[in-house]
Specification:
Elements (H helix, E strand, L loop, with lengths): L6 E4 L3 H12 L4 E4 L5 H18 L5 H9 L1 E4 L10 E4 L5 H12 L7 E4 L6 H5 L8 E6 L8 E6 L7 H11 L3 E4 L8 H4 L1 H12 L5 H10 L7 H8 L1 H14 L10 H8 L27 H24 L5 H11 L6 H8 L1 H15 L8 H9 L6
Parallel strand pairs: 1-2, 1-4, 2-3, 4-5, 5-6, 7-8
Antiparallel strand pairs: 6-7
This protein binds 1,4-dihydronicotinamide adenine dinucleotide.
The site of 1,4-dihydronicotinamide adenine dinucleotide has 23 residues, from α1 and α4.
Length: about 400
């Protein structure tokens, strides 16, 4: 993509602002538009301030920051986007509203304009469904904060033109991002494969096997994750995390593997949303002390193994169902959510047989479909193969 090509970002919230910053830093003139009066201009000003701070810290030269800032411009309506070659939509997560925007947009932009959605939980195919030309619509799913997180899931819908995903992946590389191709299925890669990190942690807690601090401690110290599940849910926001879990569960026609947790629902109902409300699973008010985890090596290892095998099973199943290829799955989890290593590599190291038998034990113990091993895992064990063999 020629960096002189005009890019537009619609929706000047957290994601739109970050994406606009990335595009401007990659050299594109960027138009920002938002339905709330003044929001686009405020976002442009905020991105310029951020660029200035990056220059102060020496991450950019002051000339680079000023140039990138000067490439951003707020506009008042979709009608101002006629010359855009790539439009990225990051508005409210609401299917009818997104569908309405895309049909409006296609009557305004040129026929060679690519229209992308940053949706995290809706179907790209459904968003494009009301358009006369759905072939130029694609998902480009950035992670929060977009300027810092390298991953972009590139998601062609059912009607997306062949070759558009490759073109978009090339553009994302030019923007210094790590693109991964994935199928238009609920949660794409990351929000699907990561579900057991939260879901199984909640389940272990609900069964009374360990308290939250101990579960977090196990995943940090034995698993090597930067944050444990409960502290991460408190950071993300329990409302946001619960909404993603619910939407994945519903989108999979209520597959019990993705069933949301009552514990988390109660947190949301009581307003214990996490850091942003001062209280979530933990008390985040000033002066509060974090609870002390139990330092029982056997318990910590049990917690780590149970969550890990569920994550591995999810990754193996995504591979089995062709949601993404092996390397995309590994990149997605390491570059999108900072996992210490790819889950399929982790499976090889942990031992596929050990992984399968742990899942079979859980399934036998609980009699629940939640723990059913992926057919691919069974087959790999039968054939004595490794994911990275
Ligand atoms: P946000 O609430 O911070 O910003 C959304 C913006 O869109 C608001 O400024 C709102 O005024 C504007 N807007 C709403 N309807 C509009 C319309 N019809 N036309 C123009 N502007 C409109 O939301 P956020 O978090 O930035 O999310 C935006 C999108 O990105 C959603 O689809 C979300 O699912 C997705 N996403 C969010 C992530 C996150 O961590 N927050 C991560 C990846 C994707």
């Amino acid at each position: 993509m020629d960096s002189s090509m005009d890019v537009a970002v619609i929706g000047a919230g957290a994601m739109g602002s970050g994406i606009a910053q990335v595009a401007a830093q990659a050299g594109h003139p960027v138009l920002m538009m938002d339905a709330r009066p003044g929001a686009a201009q405020r976002a442009v000003d905020a991105v310029r301030t951020t660029l200035g701070k990056l220059a102060e810290k020496g991450r950019l030269t002051s000339a680079e920051a000023a140039e990138a800032g000067a490439r951003l411009r707020a506009v008042g309506s979709v009608d101002d986007l006629t010359g855009s070659r790539l439009v990225i939509e990051a508005i409210v997560e609401d299917l009818p509203v997104k569908r309405g925007l895309f049909t409006e947009l296609e009557s305004v932009v040129g026929t060679d304009c690519v229209m992308a959605t940053n949706t995290s939980s809706l179907s790209v195919t459904a968003i494009a469904g009301a358009c006369a030309h759905p072939e130029r619509i694609i998902g480009l799913h950035f992670f929060n904060p977009a300027p810092l997180m390298p991953l972009v899931e590139v998601v062609p819908g059912l009607a997306t033109a062949p070759g558009l995903a490759e073109r978009c992946s090339m553009w994302m590389k030019q923007w210094s991002k790590v693109p991964v191709l994935c199928k238009d299925t609920p949660g794409f890669i990351v929000n699907r494969v990561a579900r057991p990190f939260y879901g199984e942690a909640l389940r272990i807690y609900e069964e009374g096997l360990a308290d939250m601090a101990t579960i977090d401690h196990a995943m940090r110290t034995v698993g090597g994750f930067r944050m444990g599940p409960f502290e991460l849910m408190d950071l993300i926001g329990n409302d946001v995390n619960f909404a993603v879990t619910r939407s994945v569960f519903e989108a999979f026609f209520f597959d019990p593997r993705y069933r949301p947790s009552l514990t988390q629902q109660r947190q949301v109902e009581s307003g214990r949303l996490g850091r942003k409300s001062g209280r979530g699973y933990y008390d985040h008010s000033n002066g509060s002390l974090p609870p002390t985890p139990k330092n029982d090596p056997e318990l910590l290892d049990m917690i780590y193994r149970r969550i890990l095998v569920m994550l591995i099973n999810e990754a193996a199943d995504a591979l089995y169902l062709g949601i993404a290829d092996r390397d995309a799955l590994e990149l997605a989890m390491t570059k999108g959510v900072n996992y210490p290593k790819g889950l399929l590599r982790w499976a090889d190291e942990f031992g596929l047989e050990r992984c399968l038998s742990a899942l079979q034990d859980l399934q036998a113990e609980y009699g629940e479909d939640r723990y059913r091993p992926s057919p691919l895992l069974r087959r790999m064990v039968r054939e004595g193969r490794l994911f990275h063999g």
